[in-house]
Amino acid sequence: MLERLQKILSDYGIASRRHAEELIKEGRVTVNGQIAVIGQKADPEKDYIKVDGKLLIKPEPKVYYAFYKPRKVITALLDPQGRPTIRDFIKGIKFRIYPVGRLDFDSEGLLLLTNDGELAYKVMHPSSQIEKTYMVKVDGIVEPETIEKLRKGIKIEGKLAVPVSVHLVKKLKANSWIKITLHEGRKRQIRKMLERVGHPVIRLIRIAIDGVKLGDLKPGQLRPLTKEEIEKLRRNK
């Protein structure tokens, strides 16, 4: 379909329409080997459009997935040690996607996957203060005073780690389940906090990242994010 060159360059992420006009005026855009002119139309599916001698390649559409990372799986696309990675579970996706942040080898639960670098950076950066929620099974019976101690913060490697919230969910015969929400996510932070109060982690599951919830996903499964989920992540600070 024929479209104005300015629109094509804008749609392909080369420049805004106004800046695209400047590129055309400067003679930096060619169509099928001929220097383009203002007002010219082209078909990006059929014509060879170049900017500064480089052929225009259609960018991949942005895609977003929620994935249940199983335990004993590396949050990476490749592992030199040959351990299972998330790549083993996303072979059916034709676009190259990457994990947003990470989950430890022994942890499981919600992991976002996307090819949108800008959104990934926003979700991971501490200034966004995006909440991440975990269900944690720990050794021993957690008493109310321990919950209060966790709420006030635990010093890890000289720095106080203060969660957004901590709640005791269930007591079992020899274990407890607690729910913890964090803004920051220092390496193995939850495990270190709970070790400090005498309750080593037995199982750790991330169940939510801001408005995106793990829901009914099973280990190894993934689903596309909804439009509402994507927009909520984008609206954060």
From TrEMBL:
Family stated for the protein in its record: Belongs to the pseudouridine synthase RsuA family.
Keywords associated with the record: Isomerase, RNA-binding
Enzyme Commission code(s) on record: 5.4.99.-
Organism annotation: Thermodesulfovibrio yellowstonii (strain ATCC 51303 / DSM 11347 / YP87)
Entries under InterPro entries matching the protein: PsdUridine_s_RsuA/RluB/E/F_cat, PsdUridine_synth_cat_dom_sf, PsdUridine_synth_RsuA/RluA, PsdUridine_synth_RsuA/RluB/E/F, PsdUridine_synth_RsuA/RluB_CS, RsuA_PseudoU_synthase, S4_RNA-bd, S4_RNA-bd_sf
GO biological process: enzyme-directed rRNA pseudouridine synthesis
Cross-referenced Pfam families: PseudoU_synth_2, S4
A cellular component term, taken from the record's GO annotations: cytosol
GO molecular function: RNA binding; rRNA pseudouridine synthase activity
SUPFAM superfamilies: Alpha-L RNA-binding motif, Pseudouridine synthase
Protein name: Pseudouridine synthase
Keyword Isomerase on entry: yes
